[in-house]
Structures are given as structure tokens and as C-alpha cells.
DNA sequence: GGTTTGCACCTTGTATACAATATGATTGAC
DNA sequence: GTCAATCATATTGTATACAAGGTGCAAACC
């Protein structure tokens, strides 16, 4: 793996963990020293992050960490909800036996993780559940866009799984989604998936509102 | 503007015009010589293009032009149609008087361009019409994603405006969309916008099929 | 004659040196 | 005392030099 990719991943982690907060300027030289490399791979890493939208690049000024505020976060979740709804509509019309089998397997794995109270495992199995639906759209381009946004929202979705009862509620929503897909109910699947994501959005709203009030 | 941006734009143009076809390897040195610069800004330009998905980067191998084939193109248009539908649904619920006024102004400008038979002008005014709808979603993130995909599909959409009667048909579709938005008919606006883009997709299918058969 | 291995060359990845521009402070004028 | 202009400094943008890895050809062996 190239140095640029390693550095980009490191900075990405430090951004999502909050170590690098909004507005912090990412100095090329200090990052280069931290990783014991020259500025060249650092610059490439910063360009990767710029493309993913995690940092902002101001010409001749430098790159700055760009943490989405509450408004932008809610907009991103609304977009995710709508896109998941689209995926559900298409998947309901196109999913085949193999896809349904994979969906059931993912559902079972989610249930096992929830029963064990393992939030980390639930998170990753939940990601599989959704990825199966993305793949069932039979649209590789849309699938890629969905995976990209899903990944970008990962840190904000993950934190709220710790809320009490969220895993069980999520699981029951999965059941409704799977049923609609099985029955070929396009509108039902779209509505169920939109609601599934919108719930997360509302929880985030509560959490960040609380955090802000506490700080 | 940085050299990297200039070079990226140049290569992008040469890709969309077909001068650089699928699979062509973009040699850093020859591009650098072409623009009379060093390899450094060329590498940055290639990274920008990699991020936008126009070229593919294979480590230690180089970057290669990546023209979407017919299947991928149809998938991209299907995605655009669905996303436009989403935008229509949200815009119908949220558009205000000013937004409607801007929509009408864009419609008038489209009509003028169509009456003059000016395909170029129709194209740019059509882009405004759609951009107004994107903005009316009151979701800046979604708006950005829509503009990004719209731009990416630009070369493929543009070519088919030359087809006879397309501008008139497009115009009448715009009227239906505007009416649904004015009436706050969310489902109607979504369906009208989906259909509006899907028609383009079908035309593309015909055109590329023909081109392929002719070559 | 076919296959495999080694070497030369070419290309990408990285380091460093140089150029240009924005920032901030300092000094001068009003 | 305040504002503006200018210059020093630091940081980004670009060029060039060096390192490392991959490709293709050729020669030798099977």
C-alpha cells in the first residue's frame, strides 16, 4: 500500500474520533514529520481526503478539517434515507432467490449479534444486510454511491447503536424490510427503508442536541 | 487556478470528446511535456480525475481512461432518474414562492431557446431548470450530489438534444413537472421527473446501439 | 521448440530543492 | 492613536533528482 493511503487512513481516523476537530489546519510539514516521510505523499493523502469531502482545500491557504455540523448531518441522513428508499424500490422489483437467501442470512447474523448484546458485531452485520439490498438493485453504479455514503456516515451511525433498545428496534425494522422485499412490494420496501434510516436521523438529532447542551 | 486543475480539465475534455478512448494509458511524462510542466501537477490532476471516476488508477501500473460502457451508462441514468425523483418529492413539499418564480423563469428561458432551435442554449437553460429543483429540496448535501452526477452525465445527455423533436418533448415534460411542484403533488413530481430522465436514458440506448451497429 | 529465469529498461512512488503567494507584524504617516 | 502600506516569514505550489517496483525481451535450459 502506498504511503499516501496509509496517511489518509490515519488522518481519517483522527478526524472521526474527534482528535482533529472542525477548522483545524492540517500542516503538511508536521504530518510529514509525524509519519517520517516527505511532503509529497502527504499532499497526495490530503487530496484523497479532499475528494471524499472530509477536509476542505483552500488554494494557497492549506487544508482544513471539515466536520459536518448538525444541519449538514441531518441533510446527509435525509439523503441516505431517500437513497435507501430508492434501493428498496428497485431491489423489491429485482431481487432473486439467492439475494433473498443472503438477506435472510444477514438478518440471522444481526439477530445473533443483538442477542449477544455485541454492538460492534451488530454494526458490521447490519452493514452486510444493507449491502445485500444495495447489490439487489442490480445497478452497480447506484450500489457504489450507496456504499460511499454509508461509509461516510459510519461514525455517526455507530455511536447511536449504544442507545438502549436500538438494536432490537433496528432488528424488527429489518424484518419489515425483508418481508416487503420478499413480497415484491416496491412502495412498501421504499417506505420501510426510508423510515429505518430516518429513525437513526432523529436519534442523532437528540444525541447531538444533548451533547451540545451539555458542553 | 492551479496547474493541476487546468490539466485535469484538459484531460477531462479529451475524454468526453472521445479523443482519449477507454483503456488508453495516461503517461505522466507525455502529459507533462504537453503542458510544459513537471510531473508533480500532472500527478495531482490524475488524482482529481481518479476521484471523479473518469480514470482508473492501478498502483505501480499507471492510470487508464475509463469510459463507461452502455450498461454502466444506463445504470448511471437510472440512478439519475431515481435521484431526480427524490428531489422532486422533496421539492414539492418545500418549494416556496421565490423558488417557483425561478422555476418559471427557467422554463421561459428554455422555451425561448427551443423556439430559436438553439440546442446549446436549451441545454444550459435546462440545466438551470433542474438546478432550481435541486435547490428547492432545501438539502444542500443532496443538491451537491445531484449537481455532481448531472455534470458527469453531461456529455451523454448533450448529444441527444440534437435529435429531432427532443427539445419540444422535453419542454412539455418540464411543464408537467412544474405543475406538480406548484400543486405540492410530491408523488406526481417524483414520477414526472423520473420519467423525464428515463426518456433520455432510452434515447441514449437507441443512439449507442445504432452507433455500435454502424461501426 | 517451448518454457522459465534473469536482466535491462521504463514507469511510478518518494525525497528534496526552488519559486511564488498569502499572512502578520512593524513602521510610517495622518 | 489608528490606519495603511510594505516587508519578512512561513507555507503552499512546482520542479527535479533519486529509489523501487513492474514489464518485456532475450538467452539458456529442459
TrEMBL record, chains A, B:
Transmembrane segments: none annotated. InterPro entries: GntR_C (IPR011711), TF_FadR/GntR_C (IPR008920), Tscrpt_reg_HTH_GntR (IPR000524), WH-like_DNA-bd_sf (IPR036388), WH_DNA-bd_sf (IPR036390). It holds the Pfam family FCD. One of its GO terms (molecular function) is DNA binding. Keywords: DNA-binding, Transcription, Transcription regulation. SMART domains: FCD, HTH_GNTR. Residues 1-68 form the HTH gntR-type domain. This is L-lactate utilization operon repressor. The gene is lutR_2.
Amino acid at each position: 500500500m502506498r504511503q499516501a493511503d496509509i496517511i489518509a487512513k490515519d488522518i481519517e481516523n483522527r478526524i472521526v474520533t474527534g482528535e482533529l476537530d472542525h477548522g483545524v489546519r492540517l500542516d503538511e510539514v508536521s504530518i510529514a514529520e509525524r509519519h517520517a516521510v516527505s511532503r509529497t505523499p502527504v499532499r497526495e493523502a490530503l487530496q484523497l481526503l479532499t475528494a471524499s469531502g472530509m477536509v476542505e482545500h483552500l488554494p494557497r491557504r492549506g487544508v482544513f478539517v471539515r466536520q459536518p455540523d448538525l444541519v449538514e448531518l441531518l441533510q446527509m441522513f435525509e439523503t441516505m434515507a431517500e437513497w435507501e428508499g430508492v434501493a428498496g424500490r428497485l431491489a423489491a422489483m429485482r431481487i432473486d432467490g439467492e439475494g433473498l437467501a443472503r438477506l435472510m442470512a444477514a438478518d440471522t447474523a444481526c439477530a445473533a449479534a443483538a442477542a449477544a448484546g455485541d454492538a460492534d458485531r451488530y454494526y458490521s452485520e447490519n452493514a452486510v444486510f444493507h449491502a445485500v439490498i444495495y447489490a439487489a438493485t442490480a445497478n452497480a453504479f447506484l450500489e457504489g454511491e450507496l456504499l460511499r455514503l454509508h461509509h461516510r456516515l459510519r461514525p455517526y451511525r455507530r455511536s447511536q447503536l449504544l442507545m438502549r433498545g436500538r438494536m432490537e428496534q433496528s432488528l424488527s425494522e429489518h424484518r419489515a424490510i425483508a418481508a416487503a422485499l420478499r413480497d415484491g412490494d416496491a412502495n412498501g420496501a421504499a417506505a420501510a427503508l426510508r423510515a429505518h434510516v430516518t429513525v437513526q436521523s432523529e436519534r442523532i438529532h437528540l444525541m447531538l442536541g444533548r451533547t451540545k447542551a451539555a458542553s
